[in-house]
């Protein structure tokens, strides 16, 4: 990680301290000068405190983002080092730590800062502008939001509106209001005299709802709703197939990861042998090189096409909306959908991600032999680069494997009833 991230965090923390210091100066100046309580002063102080709170929340969000990304970077570095020294357990431990760091940062964040793509079409940006009604609603939400309430209370406190006897006064008024509500008396005669109007109202209401329930718009929505329910049912069944596939194959995939971690030095040498024309003359018999990539004991997974078919269907135009609706309810399912569905949509890519025999052969075939000879120094430099690249790819694919396992556990708890739930359902059925 570059020092720019650390520098950003330090600047944000300084800005946070200065903001709190600025607020303390405002409060002390108001208290010391004994500012007169007036509507204008109340509004002005509320506005100042509101801006301050907004800046505070934005800086807080930025600090959380920068801290989590910095820690995540170091965990990635540690995980890749663990792969290079063939410590699979340590690598998986860093992946778990990274996962829990992500959950913690999402819990701590307030969502005041968001990052979007800077490559969006200017036409699309123009089309997506908020309407006047939506803009007015957003402004209204900001006005009645928690920061505005906190700013108003801070202004009231600074102007001594909510201190001492004033609090007692407002509490007594609130108690009188509650007492008035609780002591409302109902005049039975007035109720009976209003019955004809109530009866007339009850006859009008069904007429109003009749035009909705029997209108063409209602018929159209029923058709769409029925079609949508079929699509959603298809998504649920596809996710069940995904759960079954993961449970049946995740152990085999884990064995391939064990093998690639333990044999990564030999795999790097195999890549170098393919790419460097004078490799043998430079190395001699220093390294043991298998004669073929098939000599490595990578396991073939025969029905990877089934996984690719499930992912493709879930990502199809007709189902992607309902896949999102289903996935967003559970973090681990959404985590897999958001990060990995694009890489699991092609069978050749899946072979490489799971280090099958075909995948490793494809990786080797993708290497081309250079047209020039290497020196010993160039060979050593290339070897280090290949070792770093291989450990980086293994670590990233281990993250995919971890996401698959988390998604499997989450799907099982989401799709199937627990033993306690089944017992409760049986008890309720008996009662009926």
Can you walk me through this structure?
It is a single chain. With 432 residues, the chain is an all-alpha fold. It has 19 helices and no strands. It has helices spanning 3-33, 39-84, 88-108, 122-127, 132-143, 146-158, 165-182, 188-193, 195-213, 216-262, 264-275, 279-283, 304-314, 320-327, 331-340, 347-353, 357-365, 376-415, 419-431. Helix 2 (39-84) crosses helix 18 (376-415) and helix 15 (331-340) packs antiparallel against helix 18 (376-415). The radius of gyration is 32 Å and the shape is extended. The mean pLDDT is 79.
Features:
mainly alpha, 19 helices
Largest sheet: none
Please give the count of helices: 19
Number of E-state strands: 0
Query: Helical content, roughly?
Result: over 70%
Give the integer mean of the pLDDT values: 79
Cα-to-Cα separation, first versus last residue: 63 Å
- Runs in which pLDDT lies below 50 for 5 or more consecutive residues are none
Which structural class best describes the helix and strand composition?
Answer: mainly alpha
Strand content: under 5%
Task: Tell the overall outline.
Answer: extended
Please state the CA-atom Rg, rounded to the nearest Å.
Answer: 32 Å
Give the SSE string.
HHHHHHHHHHHHHHHHHHH
Outline the fold blueprint:
Layout: H1 3-33, H2 39-84, H3 88-108, H4 122-127, H5 132-143, H6 146-158, H7 165-182, H8 188-193, H9 195-213, H10 216-262, H11 264-275, H12 279-283, H13 304-314, H14 320-327, H15 331-340, H16 347-353, H17 357-365, H18 376-415, H19 419-431
Helix pairs in contact: 1-2, 2-3, 2-6, 2-18, 3-18, 10-13, 10-18, 11-18, 15-18, 16-17
């Amino acid at each position: 990680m570059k020092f720019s991230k650390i520098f950003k965090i330090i600047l944000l923390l300084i800005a946070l301290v200065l903001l709190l210091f600025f607020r303390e100066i405002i409060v002390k100046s108001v208290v010391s000068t004994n500012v007169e309580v007036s509507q204008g002063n109340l509004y002005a102080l509320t506005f100042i405190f509101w801006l301050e709170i907004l800046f505070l929340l934005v800086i807080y969000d930025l600090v959380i983002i920068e801290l989590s990304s910095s820690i995540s970077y170091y965990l990635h570095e540690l995980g890749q080092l663990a792969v290079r020294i063939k410590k699979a357990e340590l690598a998986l431990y860093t992946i778990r730590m990274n996962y829990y760091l992500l959950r913690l940062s999402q819990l701590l964040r307030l969502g005041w800062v968001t990052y979007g793509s800077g490559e969006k079409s200017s036409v699309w940006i123009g089309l997506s502008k908020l309407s006047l009604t939506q803009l007015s609603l957003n402004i209204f939400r900001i006005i009645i939001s928690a920061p505005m309430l906190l700013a108003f209370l801070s202004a009231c406190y600074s102007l001594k509106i909510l201190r001492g006897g004033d609090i007692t006064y407002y509490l007594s008024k609130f108690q009188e209001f509650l007492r008035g509500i609780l002591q409302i008396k109902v005049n039975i005669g007035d109720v009976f005299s209003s019955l004809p109007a109530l009866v007339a109202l009850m006859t009008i209401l069904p007429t109003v709802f009749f035009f909705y329930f029997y209108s063409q718009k209602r018929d159209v929505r029923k058709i769409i709703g029925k079609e949508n329910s079929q699509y959603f049912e298809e998504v649920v069944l596809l996710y069940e197939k995904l759960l079954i596939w993961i449970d049946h194959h995740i152990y085999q995939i884990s064995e391939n990861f064990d093998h690639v971690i333990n044999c990564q030095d030999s795999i790097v040498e195999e890549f170098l042998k393919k790419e460097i024309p004078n490799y043998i003359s430079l190395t001699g018999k220093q390294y043991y090189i298998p004669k073929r990539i098939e000599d490595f004991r990578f396991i073939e997974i025969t029905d990877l096409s089934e996984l690719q078919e499930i992912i493709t269907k879930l990502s199809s135009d007709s189902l992607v909306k309902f896949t999102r609706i289903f996935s967003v309810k559970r973090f681990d399912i959404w985590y897999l959908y958001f990060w990995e569905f694009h890489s699991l949509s092609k069978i050749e890519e899946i072979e490489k991600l799971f280090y099958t025999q075909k995948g490793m052969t494809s990786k080797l075939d993708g290497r081309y032999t250079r047209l020039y000879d290497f020196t010993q120094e160039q060979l050593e430099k290339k070897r280090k680069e290949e070792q770093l690249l291989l450990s980086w790819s293994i670590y990233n694919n281990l993250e995919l494997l971890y996401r698959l396992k988390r998604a499997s556990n989450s799907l099982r708890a989401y799709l199937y009833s627990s033993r306690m739930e089944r017992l409760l359902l049986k008890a309720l059925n008996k009662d009926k």
